[in-house]
Design a protein that fits this description.
By secondary structure, the protein is an alpha/beta fold. The protein has a domain at about 455-604: Vaccinia Virus protein VP39 (Rossmann fold, 3-Layer(aba) Sandwich), CATH 3.40.50.150. It is about 55% helix and about 10% strand. It contains 26 helices and eleven strands. The strands form three sheets. It has a seven-stranded mixed sheet, with helices on both faces. Helix 11 packs across helix 12 (about 280-290), helix 15 runs parallel beside helix 17 (about 380-390) and helix 17 (about 380-390) packs parallel to helix 19 (about 405-415). The longest helix is centred in the N-terminal third of the chain and has 35 residues, at about 25-55.
Length: about 600
């Protein structure tokens, strides 16, 4: 329907309001309510699953247990992040006391001092005869530095997201940072369970109808700007959007009721965004705009269109600990930088503007000699600051800048997240442009594992194989585990290495295959990338329960598994059945015996 026709509808309704009850209008409005509910329920369910997965990733409630050293390293990193989050909240509170302008002026003199509000500049930033001690733009930039890091922490660490929610959040973060080691695990678990309870309560309110989602402007705005929803309608234009907006206009939102349900930005974000999709930008927007404006959708909400990440569950084991350590370093650097700049803003006010960038760099790098070397290598303080924020480790960044230009390194660190992981990937794929193309297909952690097991000479072929996935063709890879000598041309061979056949020799004998050094329990390829998986004479020393989960992850629906094992195939059949595979019963031979070592199954 054209814009002119919609205008005619508006005109007709003014003369005949009964047209609003026409079937076409009410049908569209009912569908809009259904769309809102589908988005809200999907987000809430996704967040509930994520929290449950996080509990398991931390080695609780059936998850893979961490070693004693891993537990200690993880506890240390999370407690450090909790303390740095507490420091950042304190600095934000301090910024709110900075006078940055005036609410009125009289004969050129400022009247009624205006303290910093991240959501609103002062009416008068200065007058003819009055200059405020602080500058709103500088304070806002520093506020955003702090809020960006807080959002990143909350996005990846739901236990800190839960601990930092609400008016008592700052104290809760400080308490978590001080919990003694023997009580840390239980404290984190309780925070996650508390978050799970909040999610469950919101779900109950949506299901029972006690919460009218029309009152949550942030959610309605998300659907009206194109977020996918049930029903297949396009709510971003045309008659459907017109009908939805009429419904919203006719309803006077009960803001008090909404605030009673969603008492904090953190809880509101659980309905509109997901941890897997990146809930952090929503938190940052909400903290800046204020709760009521955030709920009403008045903030700049590009964050509504959150795309789900390739991996919708938290990382586990060694990767979990490594990530936490890197994130802890990054949060420490950002906290130091914010503290330095806030102190300077209060001490020197607008006079600090010329040296603000240097202050930021000194906050990020405490070692003056190291900072001088980094500035010399980067030759661009603005780019260096960006790199330091993302890298988290100045010493590793110095090594990388010694090999790659800052302009080339910047986009990679931005995508990968840490200097350490960037360095590991570049060591295995020195061509930065090729590495960027590979990152288009595989997430950084998975790509690091994949490149560890692939010969550098095979990288062009690997890129070609992964390229088919990026062209919208999931399930295009044929995996061969253990049947390397019988592998057909084009199959990807997963080989853990055998004494009788080295990886190097196998690569020489099978030049038409990519040979990856990996295990059946951990296949370093993207979700749903496989169309088939075959294996020959695999040992029962493989952890089939873990391998079956991996087969399900890496294969597309409908893909076939065909494996022979040494000994009985019963353990593998059992593991595949538990993962929902359609498993073919063992073949019974004419003589009545059973061919038990052959396992055939289809992924659900």
């Amino acid at each position: 329907m054209s814009a002119g026709q919609l205008t005619e509808w508006d005109a007709a309704i003014r003369f005949c309001p009964r047209l609003l009850t026409a079937p076409a209008v009410t049908s569209a409005q009912d569908a809009f309510r259904t769309a809102l509910r589908s988005v809200a329920e999907a987000n809430v369910a996704e967040n509930r699953r994520y929290v449950e997965a996080r509990i398991k990733a931390l080695g609780m409630d059936g998850g893979e247990p961490l070693t004693e050293q891993q537990q200690a390293d993880l506890r240390h990193s999370i407690q450090n992040m909790a303390y740095h989050a507490y420091e950042l909240r304190q600095e934000q509170a301090r910024l709110r006391t900075l006078v940055v302008g005036y609410e009125a002026q009289n004969l050129g003199f400022g009247e009624h001092e205006s303290h910093f509000d991240p959501g609103r500049p002062p009416k008068h930033r200065g007058t003819l005869f009055s200059t405020p001690p602080g500058d709103w733009d500088q304070a806002k930039e520093t506020w955003d530095d702090a809020e960006g890091q807080l959002a990143a922490i909350g996005n990846d660490y739901p236990e800190l997201y839960a601990g930092g929610a609400g008016e008592e959040g700052t104290a809760a973060l400080l308490n978590l940072s001080r919990v003694v080691p023997e009580h840390f695990g239980e404290e984190v678990k309780q925070q996650l369970l508390k978050l799970g309870d909040r999610i469950h309560e919101v779900q109950d309110m949506i299901t029972s109808g006690r919460l009218d989602l029309l009152d949550l402007g942030l959610l309605t705005q998300a659907v009206l700007t194109g977020q996918p929803a049930a029903g297949g309608r396009d709510w971003s234009k045309g008659f459907d959007q017109w009908a939805a907006k009429r419904l919203l206009a006719d309803r006077e939102a009960d803001k008090a009721a909404v605030r009673a349900v969603f008492q904090t930005v953190e809880i509101t974000a659980l309905v509109v965004g997901t941890f897997a999709g990146g809930i952090g930008p929503l938190l940052a927007a909400g903290a800046t705009a204020g709760l009521e404006a955030f709920q009403a959708g008045q903030a700049a909400m590009e964050a509504n269109r959150l795309e789900k990440a390739a991996t919708a569950t938290p990382v586990t084991g060694t990767a979990l600990v490594s990530k936490a350590q890197a994130d802890s370093k990054r949060s420490e650097a950002i906290a130091h930088m914010v503290q330095a700049v806030v102190s300077a803003l209060f001490a020197a006010g607008t006079a600090v503007s010329g040296g603000l960038r240097v202050l930021r760099l000194r906050g990020l790098v405490q070692d003056e000699a190291l900072l001088a070397r980094l500035r010399g290598l980067a030759k661009d303080d603005v780019l260096l600051e960006t790199l330091l924020r993302k890298a988290g480790d100045p010493a590793v960044l110095e090594q990388l800048l010694g090999k790659f230009p800052a302009a080339q390194l910047g986009p990679l660190v931005e995508r990968i997240g840490t200097a350490k992981l960037t360095g590991s990937l570049l060591q295995r794929c020195p061509n930065a442009e090729q590495l960027a193309r590979l990152l288009d297909r595989v997430n950084p952690e998975q790509l690091d594992q994949l490149l560890t097991g692939v010969a550098e000479s095979d990288l062009p072929r690997l890129e070609q194989v992964l390229g088919t996935l990026g062209d919208g063709k999931p399930g295009s890879v044929a995996f061969n585990i253990g049947g390397e000598l019988d592998a057909k041309a084009g199959e990807v061979v997963i080989n853990p290495g055998r004494q009788a056949m080295s990886i190097e020799r196998l690569r020489t004998m099978k030049p038409d295959n990519i040979v990856v050094s990996a295990r059946a329990e951990s296949i370093p390829f993207p979700d749903g990338s496989g169309r088939s998986l075959v294996g020959d004479k695999l040992p029962n020393s493989i952890d089939w329960a873990t391998a079956a989960k991996e087969f399900k992850r890496v294969l597309a629906p409908g893909s076939k598994v065909n494996i022979t094992v040494y000994g009985s195939g019963a353990p593998l059949r059992k593991a595949l059945t538990e993962q929902g595979f359609a498993v073919t019963p063992p073949l019974r031979l004419p003589d009545g015996s059973v061919l038990d070592n052959s396992v055939v199954a289809v992924r659900p």
